[in-house]
Design goal:
This protein is α/β, with parallel strands linked by helices. Helices cover about 40% and strands about 20% of the residues. The chain has a 6-stranded parallel beta sheet with strand order 2-1-3-4-5-6, sandwiched between helices. It binds S-adenosyl-L-homocysteine, iron/sulfur cluster and FE3-S4 cluster.
């Protein structure tokens, strides 16, 4: 790839596309990128080797999307990406702190790399949500000497500058911005896939669910301009992208900070007119903000997939109040009824927390009641993990870990049966699948997702990654469908 041309293109594009939109960018970043690229070019000429990097991404789609920007910047700086088992000069950790085990995995991985760092002279870069917490940065500074660069979620764009500083004086560089700032547009990006893409529409969260660390590490809500989002999607479509997933901690708040009502529904309607895009997904929707205009948009927009991720967290109104979720069990069930009436073939998925402080057997029964009544295709279930600085951390925990584990297992078992029963209804039917490529378990068969977001493994001739195909489902389990393909329809 000709990175010099890329950088010139970015500079021009920034001037052209962002002028008049009231959006700021950070043109100085491209100077830092250029400086390092020159430095890397000298190194390549002298040693006939290209410096390498690899990424370790933890957590949610926000981090996945950030990792694409970090990879984009590194590639423009002249580094080459390698696989997880290959040696690299720079090893980037994009971290998550939503639960304790996410943090433990990061510490474990970084610790395990000390030999590789010493042998190869590699450095570790730590960024992402964990870094927004001062006690974590302190721990890394004290006990993890190979971590040479640390930055946070609000200043991803300063990475080239920090790397330049590190290369210049070989001293550890730490720069974590406490507060969110303007949205930086038009940073380099290396998309993980060509046929599908994440498009973030709103950053941060204002909801402060009492258990959740996200608002503290991702800042307040900031919506990207609709014009910029649409331009990005048009560019993606021109590049062969067929499916986009619009991202936000709560996409239903999109536009609120811009003083615009129902902007999310308007955005979905506007995407309908973009040729080339066949599927639109979004996550996550907070039940308290799911408007009638959004249900209408989902119903009327042909590209919007008939799948909705609608976390309910707990079925108990008492616990929901302690969680600061601002809806009740009945409110949630009524909302689901309304959605199902309007969109009968909708598939629902959810997130559930087990063992929130004070959760009684009765509260847990309410959670089971909700999963039985709603019939989710999939549920992501988590054991409550106290997070430093959140209101729930101070709430008294009355439930033993043994009881919580038992509840957790009960929930898994019941949901597995529900998921299997729903899947069985697809047996014998023909479904539309966007092909993601060879299956991870068996490279001889293909794998992809239905519009309802079910995983399908299937055999087919003449079908390739990125095709949209019709697949006959011959067998169904809770977590994946097995099929035979497949007429290519897109
Ligand atoms: N913004 C999204 C997702 C946030 S994090 C939403 O509101 O749905 C993803 C999931 O992690 C949450 O839905 C919740 O189920 C879970 N989670 C968040 N904090 C947690 C904690 N402290 N302990 C256990 N699970 C948690
Ligand atoms: Fe966390 Fe609640 Fe915001 Fe989701 S909506 S990110 S669970 S505070
Ligand atoms: Fe984790 Fe941050 Fe996402 S805490 S869940 S990576 S927003």
């Amino acid at each position: 790839m000709d990175t010099k041309n890329n950088i010139d293109r970015y500079k021009l594009k920034q001037k052209a596309s962002l002028s008049g939109m009231g959006v700021e960018n950070a043109p100085e970043n491209y100077d830092w990128i250029e400086n390092i690229r020159n430095f890397n070019m000298d190194h390549s000429l002298k040693t006939r080797k290209t410096r390498k990097f690899k990424l370790n991404v933890f957590g949610c789609q926000m981090n996945e999307r950030d990792s694409e920007t970090i990879a984009g910047m590194l590639i423009d700086m002249g580094f080459e990406e390698v696989g997880e088992h290959d040696p690299a000069d720079i090893i980037v950790f994009i971290t998550c702190c939503v639960r304790e085990n996410a943090e433990e995995r990061v510490y474990g991985h970084i610790g395990a790399l000390s030999k590789e760092c010493e042998e190869n002279g590699s450095i570790i870069v730590a960024c992402g949500c964990m870094m927004q917490q001062p006690h974590i940065v302190e721990k890394l500074k004290k006990s993890y000497h190979n971590v040479k660069i640390i930055f946070g979620t609000h200043n991803v764009h300063t990475f080239p500058k920090l790397l330049y500083q590190y290369f210049n004086n070989k001293k550890r560089v730490i720069d974590v911005w406490e507060k969110e700032d303007r949205i930086i547009e038009d940073l380099p990006v290396k998309r993980t896939e060509k046929h599908k893409a994440w498009v973030s529409i709103i950053l941060g969260c204002n909801n402060f669910c009492s258990y959740c660390i996200v608002p503290y590490v991702r800042g307040r809500e900031r919506s990207r301009s609709m014009e910029i989002v649409l331009n990005e999607i048009r560019e993606l479509a021109k590049d062969g992208c067929k499916e986009i997933t619009l991202l936000g901690q709560n996409v239903n708040s999109y536009g609120n900070d811009l003083g615009q009502k129902n902007l999310f529904a308007k955005l979905l309607n506007a995407i309908e007119d973009i040729d080339g895009i066949s599927r639109v997904r979004f996550m996550t929707s907070h039940p308290k903000d799911l408007s009638d205009s959004l249900i209408d948009a989902m119903k009327n927009c042909k590209k919007v997939c008939n799948h909705l991720h609608l976390p309910f967290q707990s079925g108990s109104t008492r616990i929901l109040e302690k969680m600061n979720r601002r809806y009740t069990k009945e409110g949630y069930l009524n909302l689901v009824d309304k959605i199902k009436r309007q969109i009968p073939d909708i598939a629902l998925s959810t997130d559930i927390i087990v063992g929130f402080p004070g959760e009684t057997d009765e509260d847990f029964e309410d959670t089971l009641d909700v999963i039985r009544k709603v019939q989710f295709d999939a549920a992501f279930t988590f054991i409550y993990s106290p997070r430093r600085g959140t209101p729930a951390e101070k709430m008294e925990q009355i439930v033993s870990s043994k009881v919580i584990s038992r509840r957790f297992q009960t929930l898994l078992d019941i949901q597995k049966d529900i998921g299997t029963d729903l899947a069985k209804k697809v047996e014998g039917k023909t479904v539309e699948v966007l092909v993601d490529g060879p299956s991870k378990q068996n490279p001889n068969i293909l794998s992809g997702r239905t519009r309802t977001n079910r995983l399908v493994n299937f055999e087919a001739e003449g079908v390739k990654k990125g095709d949209i195909v019709l697949v006959d489902i011959v067998r169904a389990g809770a977590f994946w469908l097995e099929g035979r393909g497949g007429k290519v329809i897109g």
